[in-house]
Amino acid sequence: MVHLNINKVVKSVYEFMGIVERIDVNENTLYIYHGNTDRRAINAIEKILLNVLDLNGAKYESRCSENLIVMSPIKPKTEVLVLT
């Protein structure tokens, strides 16, 4: 389940602090625009955001490109029990 409140807080704090340029939220997906060129900085932003979301009960996976990090919720796996 997506926690819209945490998404709003993350967007507000990270944009205000200048850590990222912009965060767009489209349904359940976060689009994080940054101006970093240092791979270590990009990885740090990605890891911090994933941990913040995770600690608030929102499981996300991410993909990175040159100036964009896309975070999508992980759909819970369902187990099927087959009785014979």
CATH class: Alpha Beta
CATH-defined architecture: 2-Layer Sandwich
Number of strand segments: 4
Strand content: 25-35%
The biggest sheet amounts to: 4 strands, antiparallel
Q: Class by helix and strand content?
A: alpha+beta
Gross morphology: elongated
Query: Helix content range of the residues, please?
Result: 25-40%
Task: Give the overall average pLDDT.
Answer: 87
Given as residue ranges, the uncertain stretches (5+ residues, pLDDT < 50) are: none
CATH topology: Gyrase A, domain 2
Order of helices and strands: HEEHEE
Q: Your description of this structure?
A:
- This protein has helices at residues 4-16, 39-55; strands at 22-26, 29-33, 60-64, 68-73.
- It has 84 residues and is of the alpha+beta class.
- The chain has a single domain, classed as Gyrase A, domain 2, CATH 3.30.1360.
- Strands 1-2-4-3 form a four-stranded antiparallel β-sheet, with helices on one face.
- It starts with a helix and ends in an 11-residue tail after the last strand.
Task: Give the SSE layout.
Blueprint: H1 4-16, E1 22-26, E2 29-33, H2 39-55, E3 60-64, E4 68-73
Antiparallel strand pairs: 1-2, 2-4, 3-4
